[in-house]
């Protein structure tokens, strides 16, 4: 069942409540360091964000402003931003074709990243499975950029975002998972992902936590360089 568990009016309050509920699981595992991080924005495509698509995620539109604010903060700080675009053909879909109604191919206009997001800065990679690291150059690119931490945003929380978070952990990256910067079909799936990742894979965080720290450290860097 699809439900708009995040709306522009409820996003901040509900996301904070989700974070508070996870407090008993959270441990001090070290600080978020923007200069060592990259922002991953997964699959923010028209396929998932337009109401006339059968794959529409009602809560996804609510996170758009926060995701774009994150993008802007990273671009201003000169930090890596990676966009993913999920695309499939019958040759590379694998098990995806057995689970889902149709495949998103590059010719489908709904495969494009939503126009509300500025993709002119950053790397856009194509992926064929839930895991953005699978058969892509993502890990190599991040290491070339001296990245040690990844911040995960996008859709869907419990599929591509969660799978990529687990994969990033296995690749040796420290993972920060955005409570209010990811979205999926319903609150139950969203909360399940946060609960499971918080127990051993990622640190659930709020967009404002990441944005404010990134802006503060970027301002300090500019002051030191002046």
Overview of this protein structure:
The chain has 226 residues and is of the alpha/beta class. The chain is built from 8 helices and 6 strands. The protein is globular. 39% of the residues are buried.
Give descriptors for this structure.
alpha/beta, 226 residues, 8 helices
Give a short overview:
This protein is of the alpha/beta class and 226 residues long. The protein contains eight helices and six strands; from the N terminus they run αβααβαβαβαβαβα.
The outline comes out as: globular
Largest sheet: 6 strands, parallel
Across the major sheet, the strand order is 3-2-1-4-5-6
User: Which percent band covers the strand fraction?
Assistant: 15-25%
- The average pLDDT is 95
Low-confidence spans: none
Cα-based radius of gyration, to the nearest Å: 17 Å
How many DSSP E strands?
Answer: 6
Helix content: 25-40%
SS content category: alpha/beta
SSE pattern, N- to C-terminal: HEHHEHEHEHEHEH
- The end-to-end span amounts to 54 Å
Tally the helices. 8
């Amino acid at each position: 069942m699809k439900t708009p568990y995040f709306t522009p009016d409820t996003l901040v309050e509900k996301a904070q409540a989700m974070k508070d509920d996870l407090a008993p699981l959270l441990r001090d595992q070290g600080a978020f360091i923007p200069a060592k991080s990259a922002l991953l924005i997964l699959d923010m495509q028209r396929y998932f964000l337009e109401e006339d698509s059968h794959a529409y995620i009602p809560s996804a539109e609510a996170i758009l402003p926060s995701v774009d604010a994150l993008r802007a903060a990273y671009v201003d700080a000169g930090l890596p931003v990676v966009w993913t675009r999920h695309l499939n053909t019958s040759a590379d879909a694998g098990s995806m074709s057995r689970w889902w109604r149709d495949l998103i191919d590059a010719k489908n206009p709904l495969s494009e990243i939503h126009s509300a997001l500025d993709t002119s800065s950053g790397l856009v990679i194509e992926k064929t499975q839930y895991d953005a690291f699978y058969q892509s150059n993502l890990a190599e690119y991040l290491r070339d950029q001296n990245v040690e931490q990844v911040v995960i945003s996008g859709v869907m929380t419990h599929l591509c975002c969660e799978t990529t978070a687990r994969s990033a952990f296995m690749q040796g990256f420290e993972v920060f998972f955005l409570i209010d910067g990811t979205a999926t079909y319903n609150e139950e799936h969203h909360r399940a992902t946060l609960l499971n990742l918080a127990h051993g894979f990622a640190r659930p965080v709020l967009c404002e936590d990441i944005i404010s720290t990134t802006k503060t450290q970027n301002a300090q860097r500019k002051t030191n360089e002046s």
